[in-house]
Amino acid sequence: MFKTADMVCGIIGMMFSGGAFTMTLFFKKFKNVPVGPEFFPRWLAAGLFVCSAALFVQALKRPAAADKPAPTISPRNKGIRRLIAGIALIALYVFSWELAGFPLTTPLLLFALMFLLGMRRYPVMALFALGATAAIFCAFKFLLGIDMPLGLLENLL
Q1: CA-CA distances (angstroms) from residue 14 to 18, 42, 43, 51, 86?
Q2: Taking the model in full, what pTM does it have?
């Protein structure tokens, strides 16, 4: 049932967010840094907790009589196959990031994910993938002072 599934997902989400928030308590502290590395993950964990709690409360308020059975998850479902392919692409991206570098792997990932989601305007996809990669690279390098791995382009850039 959707009610039961929503309640279970709400509880799992709250537990996951509590664990993630707890992990941020052990992040390294830096002197003279107003916003440390724990800031963003803590806000994400708090947001996940609020959304999970809202899902749980909504499920509690919903009458059980009007509830329909929850659909099953099947690999025969096209959406589930896309989800699995997307996760595989992201895993491949993570494992190839250090070797091939951010500037090569990121536009390929973005292009592949757009293709996976059904976009077929290839020039727009390529332009967006390259532009987003350049914007992210410049933001990290010049605004935040964080070097991204260059991989194969190490000697060129």
Answers
A1: 6, 13, 14, 9, 25
A2: 0.66
